[in-house]
Amino acid sequence: MLDEIKRRMRELCRNKLRLFLTIGGITIGVLSVIIISMLGEVGKNTVDKKLTSMGLDSVVVSVNGGQGNGLCEEDLSKLKDIEEIRKAIPLMSLVTYSVIRETNSDCILWGVNEDANNVIDLDVLHGRLINKGDVSSNAKVCLIDEELARESYSRSNIVGKKVNVEINGIMHEYEVIGVVKNGVNVLQSMLGNVIPAFVYIPYTTFQNASARSYFDQIAVKLYDSNVNVSGKIETAIIAGNSNRTAVNVENLLGQKDALSSILDIVTIILTFIAGISLLVSGLSIMTVMMVAVSERTREIGIKKSIGASNGDILIEFLIESALITLIGIVIGVVLGILIGSIGCAIMGIEIMINVKLILGVFMFTLFTGIIFGVYPAYRASKLKPVEALRL
């Protein structure tokens, strides 16, 4: 078999330029599919991590009915006692605006406690996070995201500066104790002003400023995000408070999964579009093999006249078709992974390789190459020796 492959390669190398161009077409097609699939996997993984850093793998609890229509410290303690829950933090929020150095910016004000970083991944660029002392003393301090800092001071480190935030028609001044970066910064960069800036203050400070004794929601982080604890949460929150008509338990993981599904669909569509080039490569293989049959008609006639069967001729041309395809696939896969990996390394992104998709591309392209080589091989096998030698 190895000797036969060597003979087929010698036949193919009769016209090196034609062989090179055909293999190049297959390589480009495979390369396109591999790079697009890698981009899709990398994009999905990056967005997934950013959404997780924003807390979209958490469970958010709120209530309908009851005093103040909100949650209290007792509710927070009850949820912390549920064994499946790793962390539970109070959440208060308000869509408002901030003023820093005469720069007005839309923002979302968040009231959190010292455990916020365990639910929302806050990467501290400068300064520190809100601590227990800030919460217990109702300190007038805040964290701001990097985009807001750069918008006002054209730099990220503005620790110690003052931020004014409007709450219920009154401007409140807070000292910046930290500048943070999380998943929302990426979305802000992509979508511009569509995504507002984030400002974080102690929830007790938020309560004082808004004259509220409760908080809007409780964000819960589970040990296992796939475990359903809705029933336990509802029972714990409603217990001892008959005024509450309903407990809303929203698993944000479902929203993240929905976004991931959309990215999967986009990746599949782009991969399918790139895959069209593989069919074009298959047509080029058919064209090359048809030309090869025409050029070697007398040779085929001689082989058949000395005893070569139709099957022998058919197999010869199918092997050549498979060899051209196989070489193009290998080069395309290697170059695709190499270029994709270099791109990820330059951008500092984790390399993601979909092995199943690569194997699928390998098999599909090889199958396509062989199928498109069948007709030329069949036509060669059906040549009659007398007619072939006459040409």
End-to-end distance: 31 Å
How can the largest sheet be summarized?
A: 6 strands, mixed, barrel
Rg, rounded, reads 33 Å
Strand content: 15-25%
**Low-pLDDT residue intervals, each spanning 5 or more residues:** 184-192
| SS field, number of helical segments | 14
Across the major sheet, the strand order is 2-3-8-5-7-6
Mean pLDDT reading = 78
**Structural class, from secondary structure content?**
alpha+beta
Number of strands: 10
Q: How many domain units?
A: 2
Shape: elongated
List SSEs in N-to-C order: HHEHEEHEHEHEEHEHEHEHHHHH
Helix content: 55-70%
Question: Could you please describe the fold and organization of this structure?
Answer:
It is a single chain. It is built from 14 helices and ten strands. By secondary structure, it is of the alpha+beta class. β6 and β7 form a beta hairpin. α1 (2-12) crosses α12, α2 packs antiparallel against α10 (253-295) and α2 (16-53) crosses α12. It is elongated, with a radius of gyration of 33 Å. Mean pLDDT is 78; it is low at 184-192.
What is the strand and helix layout of this fold?
Elements: H1 2-12, H2 16-53, E1 59-64, H3 73-80, E2 85-100, E3 103-112, H4 116-119, E4 123-127, H5 132-136, E5 141-145, H6 146-153, E6 162-167, E7 170-181, H7 183-191, E8 197-202, H8 203-210, E9 217-222, H9 230-238, E10 246-251, H10 253-295, H11 297-305, H12 310-347, H13 355-381, H14 385-390
Parallel strand pairs: 3-8, 5-7
Antiparallel strand pairs: 1-9, 1-10, 2-3, 2-6, 2-9, 4-7, 5-8, 6-7
